[in-house]
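SAMPLE LOG
Freezer: B-3
Tube label: C17
Construct: single chain, 227 aa
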Amino acid sequence: MKQLFNLRQIIYFSVGLTGIAFIAALQIKLNIGIGPWDGFGRSISYITGLKVGDIAMIQSIGCVLLTFMLLKKDFKIRNVLTLVVGVILGSLMNFFFYTVLDKIVINSYIIKLFIFVISIVISAFFVSMVQTSEFVSLPLENLCQVIADRNGKTFAFIRQAVDVLCVIGIIVITIFFRVPLTLREGTILSMIIFSPFTGVFMPKLSAWLIKEGILSDRTQTHSPVTE
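STRUCTURE (predicted):
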């Protein structure tokens, strides 16, 4: 029987997923605004009192349900497995935020801002790793890819559109529920920087994976950026 996945592919995916969780927890800890998707989840956590990682899991479930509604009979087991990835991601976020980074305090705003900008680029790189791994995607990114494929758009374009919707959602929640505003300069920076960088990283990583023999040309069934 032909092996569907190889060890290097799984390690590559795992590094990307762990990196995403750590950067998300770090951005929340910096407290100068977080990525729109995580900021939307943080706003919901203020309302519900649930941990940020638990909200991330709920968001993942919502993405999988939307993917199912779009794909219907084309919904595959790999789409279901994105939910498992979402649960693992939420658990890792809780671990990094409430344990690893719990005692870390950075008072300098300039240092916070510098770290945050760098973290956006790194986050885009880690997300691109997961997306190009051809193993299991993240729930949100999988949903964005499905929407992009069905509408002839790029992944980066749809992902940025989601960020814009999340920013709107944050504003609505803050106004109606009077919770702390998670929309700050960091959120806007993330909305502007994150998606374009995935558009840069994904094709380069895909080419590198094929060059190194981690994936074959046949494994790359579609281009995650240009299709």
